[in-house]
Amino acid sequence: MAILARSGLAASYLEAWDVPSVRQCLDQHSDLDLILLDIQLPDCNGLDLLENILAQRPSLPIIMLSAEYDGHTVRQAIDRGASGFLPKSTLNQVLVPAIQFVIVGGVYIPPEMLRAEPAPAAPVGAPAASPPFTNRQMDVFLLLFKGMSNKEISRQLDLAEATVKVHVRGILRTLNVSSRSEAIAKAAQAGWEKWGGGPADAAQPALGRPSLL
User: Fold this and answer.
1) How far is CA 161 from the centre of its chain?
2) Is residue 76 within 8 Å of residue 46, measured between CB atoms?
3) Angle, CA 109 vertex, CA 149 and CA 209 arms, to 5°
4) Measured between alpha carbons, how far is 147 from 157 in angstroms, rounded to an integer?
5) How far is residue 71 CA from its own chain's centroid?
6) What is the DSSP string of the chain?
7) Are the CB atoms for 95 and 73 separated by under 8 Å?
8) From CA 146, how far away is CA 157, in angstroms rounded?
9) Nearest Cα to 145, choosing from 78, 195, 191?
């Protein structure tokens, strides 16, 4: 793969060009550490294949690749379970750390996608703005805010538990916190009780308990 060849990353890799060859790699290699998946495949939409792979291998990190992209495409990829999104034009000095970050459990999003215009301050007495999450992160957030565990959330939303963990990491990163209890406290401070029903509506996680991602 050209993007790996030019990166200089010391790693062995396999190449697959279409859905049958991807499935063959998955069937023959149970020890894969990461998949770099093009969003445009000759016989399939990469985002659809992303979900199919995660259904089979939910703990396998997948980074989506694309020559052209926008905020909607990046959000859609993360929303559907990708562990990262890399433009094919990504510079080598960014490419390798991004891949390493995902392998150890992070979720990589192009920095330019995070530089959103700040929202204007709400007038006094105005209703609180909605949480700044993707649609699927919002689904997870509503249940996390009620004190549900990853396993309970996965059952409620019919998602793999590994996919829920990806979304929880994204929520914590968006809120710039390191634990569920901090996320709940920050959400309550922002006035988001109406979105999640408030932690008082369900069992609340113990304060100070580290998030299990």
Assistant:
1) 13
2) no
3) 30
4) 15
5) 14
6) -HHHHTTT---------SHHHHHHHHHH-TT---EEEESEETTEEHHHHHHHHHHH-TTS-EEEEESS--HHHHHHHHHTT-SEEEETT--HHHHHHHHHHHHTT--B--HHHH-PPPPPPPPTTPPPPPPS--HHHHHHHHHHHTT--HHHHHHHHT--HHHHHHHHHHHHHHHT-SSHHHHHHHHHHTT-HHHH--GGGSPPPPTTPPP--
7) no
8) 14
9) 195
Q: Decide if 15 contacts 1 (C-beta within 8 A).
A: yes
Residue with tokens 């006094």: 124
Helices 19-28 & 46-56 angle (0-180, nearest 10): 20
Q: Look-up: residue for tokens 């509506």?
A: 201
In this prediction the pTM is 0.56
What the block records as the tokens of 207 is 């304060």
Please give the chain's pLDDT, 213 residues, in tens: 555 555 556 667 788 888 999 999 999 998 898 999 999 888 888 999 998 998 888 888 999 998 887 888 888 888 888 888 998 887 777 888 888 888 888 888 887 776 544 444 444 444 445 566 777 888 888 888 777 888 888 899 988 888 888 888 888 877 877 777 777 777 777 766 555 444 433 333 333 333 333
